[in-house]
Amino acid sequence: MRIRKKNLIQILLCSLFLYACAYIVTPAVEVTPTSTSAKGWLALVTKVSTSSAGDLQIDISIRNETGDWSKMEAAAGRPALLTSGGKTTNCDTVFVSTGGNYLAPGFQMRGYTGGTVAEPKTQLLYVECKGMTATPASKLSIDYNYVTGIYNYYVSAKPVSEKLVVNLDEVASDLKYPLADQIDGLVEPAGAKIVAINDCILTLTDAKRTDTGLELAWETNNPGAYPTYVHIGIPPVIGSDGIIYGFYTDPTLADAPITLPSQKADWTTSVAVPQDTTGLYILVSVETKQQKNFTSHVIDITGK
Questions:
Q1: Do residues 275 and 234 lie in contact, with contact meaning Cβ atoms separated by under 8 Å?
Q2: No. of H helices and E strands in the chain?
Q3: Backbone torsion region of residue 295, taken as left when φ is above 0, otherwise alpha when ψ lies between -120 and 50, otherwise beta
Q4: Nearest Cα residue to 289 out of 248, 224, 227, 230
Q5: Number of C-alpha atoms within 13 angstroms, CB side, residue 120?
Q6: In a 3-state reduction of DSSP, which class is residue 154?
């Protein structure tokens, strides 16, 4: 049978197109994710003091009570409001945020890694009210926004706007970090097999201390017929001091090795953690179901 040159070119192009589409997972059309939470986030005052500049400083911890993975931040450009002695005053210095990180439900925190990639620094959560002092029955309110659920690079989650209100007379001095409420099945053990994109299996194979923090060893196992990338970003950790360590980076931006069909791939990530910080959990976003769509997992490495 004689095949014309023009027909042969068309057949080759179609074959190439079909083969390429066989292993590239394209983003599905989705509606904008919204929160179904009724509770939102909880704020707790951990200390009321006077700063070195003579201003009122309120140290704060925040707890995720949304029932889902969530990130939050104080509303940009809005001061916190201090109601004290029958008068309401603006407090312009507000550091209340998860630092871009998604935190597991039932977890609480009091700080995160801020600054820059080149010069990271620990940012504790607090509000400062210039020239003010706290009188009995003083209250502080903070406008904030939060999102819950999966992180999808292509579809921005719709934020929910709420208000945190705390009584400065009620100081919580005995908080335990990072777990405030135990949720069955939430925390996964080291070595757990996590199903990722294209049914690849992601496993934490090791976590070891270094001079500067932690080195985490990861492995993907690809049972499929096509090469796959599994992006997890650079996972941060949170420990018994309530601080999320690891400067936040979008998980789509970090490199990931290709896992060939019926093979495994291994790589490591690292995070700077003080040597005396214990009780650590990894907060990892795993590319799942489709490209640049991430579900969150918490892995127990409290023994490290």
A1: no
A2: 1, 24
A3: beta
A4: 230
A5: 15
A6: coil
- What is the pTM for the complete model shown? 0.87
Token output for 199: 């049914």
Place of tokens 């179609």: 14
Helices assigned H by DSSP within the chain: 5-23
- The DSSP-derived string for 155-204 is SPPPPEEEEEEEETT-B-----SSBSS--TTTEEETT--EE-GGG-EEEE
What 3-state class would DSSP assign to 44? strand
Q: Which residue has the tokens 């009570």?
A: 65
Report which of 161, 151, 182, 206 is spatially closest to residue 40, judged by C-alpha positions. Answer: 161
Tokens describing residue 294: 């991430």
Start-to-end CA distance of the chain, whole Å, equals: 68
Q: What are the pLDDT digits (tens) for 243-298?
A: 999 999 999 999 999 999 999 999 999 999 999 999 999 999 999 999 999 999 99
Annotate 67-83 with three-state secondary structure.
CCCEEEEECCCCCEEEE
- Nearest to 125, CA basis, from 146, 99, 103: 99
The per-residue pLDDT for range 52-84, each reduced to its tens digit, is 999 999 999 999 999 999 999 999 999 999 999
| CA-based nearest residue to 177, from 46, 58, 270, 24 | 46
For residue 112, give the 3-state DSSP assignment. Answer: strand
Strand partners, 87: 84
Q: Out of 3.40.630.30, 2.40.10.10, 3.40.50.1110, 2.60.40.1240, select the CATH number for domain 187-300.
A: 2.60.40.1240
What are the structural domain ranges in the chain? 41-167, 187-300
What is the three-class DSSP state of 17? helix
3-state secondary structure of 251: coil
